[in-house]
Write a structure and sequence with these properties.
By secondary structure, this protein is α/β, with parallel strands linked by helices. Among the domains are: 159 residues, no CATH class; 86 residues, no CATH class; 120 residues, no CATH class; 102 residues, no CATH class. The protein has 26 helices and 21 strands. The strands form 5 sheets. Strands 1, 2, 4, 5, 6 and 7 form a 6-stranded antiparallel beta sheet that branches. It has a 6-stranded mixed beta sheet with strand order 8-11-12-3-13-14, sandwiched between helices. A hairpin with a 2-residue loop joins β9 and β10. α21 packs antiparallel against α24. It comes from Arcticibacter pallidicorallinus.
Length: 709
């Protein structure tokens, strides 16, 4: 069985939320104050009796209706783990259903049980409450919220009752404590003092673990009565040997004590009349465990645990917790053994470098599925490394959308069982690395096709005086292959429906137009997929219709536009259809006389050398005719294509420069983008006439405006 969902009402930041879980590991991600810690606390409240008394600050602050006494309700659904058809149901312990039987709300397979925690004012105090609260009703019928909370805190909170009900909460059948004790909830919060909690054997955690693993080679964690006769005798022999040697050691210690000097005071006071005082001692194995302490052995040295790094101490601490959970599940505990250990960890990445984070997650996942020291784990994190290390189905996103609504999304549940969605899910799972997984944490996402756009976009925002807005909007700029946009966009295909698990975040895809053409060899064979579309310039479109088929925009861009049209939170931005091509082409097209575009990444010789492009820019600046610019161009194919075009002279001049510029930097886009970003940044700092005018391509500017609004 496993915890399949939690319903939270009026607890801290949760007004009324349902959060779904899966068997095994659940990774809860989200920005600060998204409710991650409160989610773990809500789970803890249900399963840990010591945490069930709440304060006034635990009520949701947005409560405005006090016509009834406010109530906090946290309901947990426990569901049967059903294996795939034909497989053994390895997810179920034989005792599982017996423990939750009285809490069942659905007896059909997979069965469902429910535990509901309520923190409420008993009915017998309601009349007093109504009388007092009526003083804080305003003329418009609403309540003075702050005064109402103050009244509840002062006069009624002490009368509130905390109870956990099993099954349908309307039946008010309290969950039996014996069955509740079979659940073991271990919560490791972010501010944990690992050193203090595991340093010496006089700490309960370390002592219990040491006691459990004492003679583990004989017991294997089993109760004494379950051991073989041979192992029972071996255990007795060891205990007798310890007792004998302990007595010898204590006798030696006592013999070194000068008893007369101490006991003389007893005689002087007359205390010896009740018998002669003396010393004796006996020590058990468990008592001696108090003297043990953890150390670290390295390079032949024995170092105290306090000298160890915080990260390693946290791992040691978690290891001890796992060891104790193993003990709690074993027959060593007899009838007190737990059947459902739950591990909740807040920010396990604290003090761990990325590779250690990855190793820890893999260990935990393997442990849950094989050793089962923990049956289910709930982990909150800000770490993209941890997010990238787990399966997509394990991730739960808590966040506030761009309109301020509290949302819960499940990236793994976004995809249907269709073959297309299965391919998309596999692709996202494969490529959601530590860098790209930032898209799940960010408030807004910009997908770009390459390194150039990723480097230049913040700089372009600065020219639009929007860089700070871009940063404050917590925007992630993620570079993926253009044809892969469709897979990632499905994560954000939000519709306001109960079964829509997508993220409601503003998303922009900035992609090239990439016009293309295909030869017409034979009209009857136009569907022959062996003849591929080839990239062309926009001024080539429709110039030779008898020879080519033309497309002003790449098919993947057209598909993206059609997909995004159904979702208001999405925008697909491309250069103007029939006029634009790529980012580099657009930069030159909209800045035909801007010397900032010329960087040291240009070749020093040949057709694409920097001087040739500079000469074309100067000619445009000097308003030279198109024919004169054509004579400067060393790319005859570009000249020939433009000669066929029906464009006017001015657009042709810009197109000529843009095509030559595109050719010049095609082989070094990354280096060019890096150098261009530096030059554009320096230009931003320039004053007066030294500052050069630069125009951000319109489709980029529109993207930045959309994402920052």
């Amino acid at each position: 069985m496993y915890i399949s969902q939690i319903d939270i009402k009026n607890y801290r930041g949760f007004k009324e939320n349902i959060i779904l879980f899966q068997p095994g590991i659940n990774i809860v991600i989200g920005h600060n104050n998204a409710g991650k810690t409160n989610l773990l606390r809500a789970l803890q409240i249900v399963f840990d009796r010591a945490q069930q008394r709440l304060s006034i600050d635990d009520f949701n602050a947005s409560i405005t209706d006090f016509s009834q006494p406010p109530k906090i309700e946290i309901s947990v659904t426990i569901k049967e783990t059903v294996a795939a058809a034909g497989a053994n149901n390895v997810g179920e312990d034989p005792e599982d259903k017996n423990v939750v039987y009285n809490w069942l709300v659905n007896e059909q397979q997979p069965y469902e049980a429910r535990l509901t925690y309520q923190f409420y004012l008993p009915f017998k105090h309601h009349s007093e409450y109504f009388k007092e609260i009526s003083s804080f009703i305003k003329e418009d019928g609403t309540y003075e919220t702050e005064l109402c909370f103050n009244l509840i805190d002062k006069k009624f909170l002490r009368k509130y009752i905390a109870a956990v009900f099993g099954g349908d909460p309307q039946n008010e059948e309290k969950a039996g404590s014996d069955n509740m004790e079979r659940f073991d909830f271990q919560f490791l919060d972010a501010i944990r003092d690992a050193e203090r909690q595991m340093f010496y054997g006089n700490n309960t955690l370390l002592r219990d673990v040491l006691n459990y693993f004492l003679d583990y080679d004989l017991t294997e964690g089993k109760d004494f009565e379950m051991l073989t006769a041979e192992n029972k005798q071996s255990l007795r022999d060891r205990e007798q040997e310890f007792t004998t040697k302990a007595r010898e050691l204590l006798g030696l210690l006592i013999s070194r004590i000068s008893k007369n000097g101490i006991l003389s005071y007893a005689k002087a006071t007359g205390a010896d009349k009740g018998g002669n005082p003396n010393f004796d001692a006996n020590i058990s194995e468990q008592q001696l465990l108090f003297a043990l302490r953890l150390i670290v052995e390295k390079l032949g040295f024995k170092l105290p645990i306090k000298n160890n790094g915080l990260g390693y101490n946290n791992l040691l601490f978690i290891s001890l917790i796992m060891a104790r959970m193993q003990m709690e599940r074993s027959s060593f505990m007899g009838d007190n053994a737990k059947i459902f250990p739950i591990l909740a960890i807040e920010e396990p990445e604290a003090h761990l470098h990325p590779s250690m984070q990855y190793k820890f997650l893999k260990f935990l996942d393997e442990n849950i599925h094989t050793q089962k020291q923990a049956r289910q784990a709930f982990i909150t994190t800000h770490s993209t490394q941890i997010t990238a290390a787990v399966d997509l189905d394990s991730i739960v996103c808590l966040y506030e959308d761009f309109e301020g609504y509290q949302r819960v999304s499940y990236p793994g549940r976004v995809f249907s069982d269709s073959n297309e969605d299965k391919d998309s899910k596999a692709y996202v799972r494969r490529f959601l690395d530590a860098t790209k997984s930032n898209m799940l944490f960010a408030d807004r996402v910009v997908f770009v096709e390459g390194l150039a756009e990723q480097l230049l976009l913040p700089c372009f925002a600065a020219y639009l005086k929007a860089e700070e807005l871009l940063i404050n909007a917590h925007t992630a700029i993620v570079s993926v292959d253009g044809t892969s946009f469709k897979h990632f966009l499905k994560l954000f295909a939000f519709q306001d429906a109960p079964d829509n698990y997508c993220l409601r975040r503003k998303v922009v895809c900035i992609t090239d137009a990439d016009p293309s053409h295909r030869e017409r060899e034979n009209d009857e064979e136009e569907e022959d997929h062996r003849r591929h579309w080839k990239s062309c310039y926009p001024f080539q479109l429709d110039t030779e219709p008898d020879k080519y088929h033309y497309s002003p925009m790449a098919s993947h861009a057209q598909a993206l536009l059609a997909f995004a049209a159904n979702y208001p939170n999405m925008r697909i931005s491309t250069p103007s259809q029939g006029i634009g091509k790529t980012l580099e082409y657009e930069l030159a097209h909209h800045n035909p006389d801007c010397g900032l575009l010329l960087t040291d990444s240009f070749p020093t010789r040949g057709k694409n050398k920097k001087a040739a492009i500079s000469q074309l820019m100067q000619a445009i600046k000097d308003a030279k005719e198109f024919e004169e610019l054509s004579s400067m161009c060393q790319h005859q194919d570009i000249i020939d294509w433009l000669a066929l075009s029906k464009w006017e002279s001015e657009p042709k001049k810009k197109a000529l420069l843009a095509a030559c510029y595109h050719r010049a930097i095609e082989a070094s886009k990354g280096e060019h983008a890096f150098l261009l970003e530096q030059q554009l940044r320096r230009n931003l700092l320039a004053q007066g006439d030294t500052r050069v005018d630069f125009k951000v391509p319109p489709y980029i500017a529109e993207s930045i405006t959309f994402i920052t609004q």
